[in-house]
């Protein structure tokens, strides 16, 4: 491209998370994997949490993301196991002097009509989707408070606001996490910690495949864009909320659903 007299070339944009440390749960696949990769591409060192039985996949040396500015450290974590959460917090403290970002992405799906859903299943869903993330957040928020700054991002869902048949356990758990986001924002704001949530619609992940096809297609059809999101779509919003671009945003839930109105 020809440069005219008096013009100066724009400098390359600096990585949005240069030197930051980010904890990402469920980082072995789907949305979590996409978030971990985009964070690393923008200079963050990612503490990638996943169940020991589902290790973070290795990447080939010629993978473009492999040469990203940031690095990655795997951390075993099972949100259904209190001892595992405590061990993960200890491992996080040992791996990094501070934590700047926490993404509570890991979760489990559940579908079934109310009368056919046992209380045991409901408790199991809430254990992973609500109580586990909050327990992890308690430990990580203490690390953030030491530096007086941090960004916590919870993955909710449009199911939190849509009382569709068969979504009681999952939708209620995501609604609880969205409500917790607002309380955490209020309580942690004085320590310089921002807390927000992302509510995806149908997203091209393994969890999408667990949905009833008719319900999935109806939800996509209800969106203005009439298409499912990709994990990268969600990761891009997480990058915004993790970075200083959103420095005055907290207590909010951003819907990434293609325009379900």
UniProtKB/TrEMBL annotation:
Keywords: Oxidoreductase
GO molecular function (one): oxidoreductase activity, acting on the CH-OH group of donors, NAD or NADP as acceptor
SMART domains from the UniProt entry: PKS_KR (SM00822)
Coiled-coil residues: none
Pfam family, one: adh_short_C2
Stretches assigned to the Ketoreductase domain: 20-201
Gene3D superfamilies: NAD(P)-binding Rossmann-like Domain
InterPro entries associated with the record: KR_dom, NAD(P)-bd_dom_sf, SDR_fam
Family as reported in the entry's similarity comment: Belongs to the short-chain dehydrogenases/reductases (SDR) family.
Stated name of the protein: SDR family oxidoreductase
Organism whose genome encodes this protein: Roseospira marina
Phylogenetic classification of the source organism: Bacteria, Pseudomonadati, Pseudomonadota, Alphaproteobacteria, Rhodospirillales
């Amino acid at each position: 491209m020809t440069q005219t007299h008096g013009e100066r070339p724009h400098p390359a944009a600096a990585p949005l998370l240069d030197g930051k440390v980010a904890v990402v749960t469920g980082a072995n696949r789907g949305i979590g994997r996409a978030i971990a990769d985009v964070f690393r591409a923008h200079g963050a060192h990612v503490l990638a949490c996943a169940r020991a039985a589902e290790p973070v996949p290795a990447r080939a040396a010629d993978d473009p993301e492999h040469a990203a500015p940031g690095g990655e450290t795997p951390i075993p974590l099972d949100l259904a196991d209190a001892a595992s959460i405590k061990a993960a917090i200890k491992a996080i403290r040992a791996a990094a002097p501070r934590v700047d970002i926490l993404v509570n992405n890991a979760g489990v799906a559940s579908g079934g009509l109310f009368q056919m859903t046992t209380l045991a299943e409901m408790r199991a869903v809430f254990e992973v989707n609500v109580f586990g993330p909050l327990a992890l957040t308690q430990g990580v928020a203490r690390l953030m408070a030491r530096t007086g700054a941090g960004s916590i991002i919870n993955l909710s869902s449009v199911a939190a606001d849509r009382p569709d048949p068969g979504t009681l356990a999952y939708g209620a758990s995501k609604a609880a996490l969205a409500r917790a986001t607002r309380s955490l924002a209020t309580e942690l704001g004085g320590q310089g910690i921002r807390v927000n949530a992302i509510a995806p619609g149908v997203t091209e992940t393994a969890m999408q495949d667990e949905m009833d096809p008719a319900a999935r297609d109806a939800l996509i059809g209800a969106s203005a864009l009439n298409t499912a999101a990709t994990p990268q779509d969600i990761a891009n919003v997480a990058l915004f909320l993790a970075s200083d671009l959103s420095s005055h945003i907290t207590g909010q839930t951003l819907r990434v659903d293609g325009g379900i109105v």
